[in-house]
Amino acid sequence: MLSAAAAERNKEPILAVLRESVNIGRPLQALEISSGTGQHVTHFAQALRNIMWQPSEYDRQSLASIEAYRAHYQLYNVRPAIHLDASLPHQYWGGIQSESLDLVVNINMIHISPMACTEGLFKGAGAILKPQGLLLTYGPYAVNGHISPQSNVDFDYSLRQRNPEWGLRDISLLSHIAQSSGLFLEKIIDMPANNKCLLFRKESLV
């Protein structure tokens, strides 16, 4: 059971956004893309028992940690974690069917992965979400070409030094990419530690 300090800090604020944003009165199906250690999905599953959660990860060590959290908490509403590469088409996402999910959650991935993963995230979410389904992303972002405060500027620089394909993405760019997959930015919520939650809604074609 790996433990990330950031996940421990932000799991409750993100849960508060989920409580406000999803229907807690009926059964729902959710996928977390890039579940990390497993701290988030087990925390959300304990609080939101009406949601059946599917954790996923690209990193093999993290997959093992997610399974350790599942074993520890014995949650009936968390499925075994699947290996998922967000840069690949959704047909390679562990058999998840088109328009089968109410919710997709993606926490702290977009800025520490190549742009192909972000593009794949939106394209895949646009396919697997039901009409009116919700994609929630969380992390630090640029706004209209501007990064603030200085700590986020420094963070962006350090990410790009580690990997030129990483870095804070601009919300306007993400909104544009999302729209091409039928997802529309519904709400931007300021979060602690200069992060934001972005809520994208899948528009029905009716």
Tally of helical runs: 6
Binned, the helix content reads 25-40%
Q: Write down the Rg.
A: 16 Å
N→C terminal distance: 45 Å
Secondary-structure class: alpha/beta
Pfam families: DUF938
Keywords: Methyltransferase, Transferase
Family: Belongs to the UPF0585 family.
InterPro entries: DUF938, SAM-dependent_MTases_sf
Description:
By secondary structure, the protein is of the alpha/beta class. It contains six helices and seven strands; from the N terminus they run H-E-H-E-H-E-E-H-E-H-H-E-E. It has helices at residues 5-21, 39-47, 60-73, 115-128, 150-162, 171-179, and strands spanning 28-33, 51-57, 82-83, 101-107, 129-139, 183-191, 195-202. Strands 3-2-1-4-5-7-6 form a seven-stranded mixed beta sheet, sandwiched between helices. One of its GO terms (biological process) is methylation. It comes from Xyrichtys novacula (Pearly razorfish). Belongs to the UPF0585 family. Keywords: Methyltransferase, Transferase.
Give the topology, please:
Layout: H1 5-21, E1 28-33, H2 39-47, E2 51-57, H3 60-73, E3 82-83, E4 101-107, H4 115-128, E5 129-139, H5 150-162, H6 171-179, E6 183-191, E7 195-202
Parallel strand pairs: 1-2, 1-4, 2-3, 4-5
Antiparallel strand pairs: 5-7, 6-7
Helix pairs in contact: 1-2
Task: Offer a quick outline of the entry.
The protein has 206 residues and is α/β, with parallel strands linked by helices.
Name the features:
206 residues, alpha/beta, seven-stranded mixed sheet, 7 strands
